[in-house]
Design a protein that fits this description.
Length: 121
Amino acid sequence: VKAIEVKDKPVSFNDVQIFGKKAIDMGATDATYVMVATQQERLDDTRLGSWADGFGLSLTLFYDWNSLIHQSLYWAATPKREAAKFAAIRIRDRLVAVEAHPDSIQRWDAELQTLRGATTP
């Protein structure tokens, strides 16, 4: 079982621990926290990792979309180019579905434009 949390506001060390504990309580063994706020400070990844290890939880932290995307594409079962197109559309759809702040969607669209030099899906 895997758990993921995405936040577009600054996240604290304690916020990640609360999420990690919820993930553990749900039976997750892998958890990912994506922190994409422009004002997000770097957390103590080593200390959070050690904390999570103590509960048998593998914790991965991402501080931006690019890191998440690169890792996802690397591990995708489909060719990178196809996986990238599919993921970009699905992520945008999900942002809209969860009623993400319009600024978040605009940032996502801007990132897509930068990567491909075209209009967004």
